[in-house]
Amino acid sequence: MSNLKHWIWLTQRKGLAGQSAIRVLEHFGTPELVHAADEEAYRLVGGLPDAAIRSLMNKSLDLADEILGDCDRLGIQLLTLQDATYPERLKAIHQPPMVLYWKGRQIAFDEELAIAMVGTRKATPYGVRAASRLSAELTRRGALIVTGMAEGIDASAVRGALKMGGPVVSVLGGGIDRVYPWQHKDLYEDVAAVGALISEYPPGAEHKGANFPIRNRIISGLSVGVVAVESGRSGGTLLTVGHALDQDREVFAVPGPMDAPESEGTNRLIQEGAAKLILGADDVLCEFAQRFPGKLRPAKGLSRSAEEQRLEGAATVPERREPPKANKKPPQKDGDDMVYLRWADCKDKLTDDQRELLLALDGGEVQADDLVERTQIPVRRVLSALTLLQIQGYVTEESGKRFRAAVKLKME
Question: Are 270 and 283 in contact (CB under 8 A)?
Answer without folding.
Answer: no
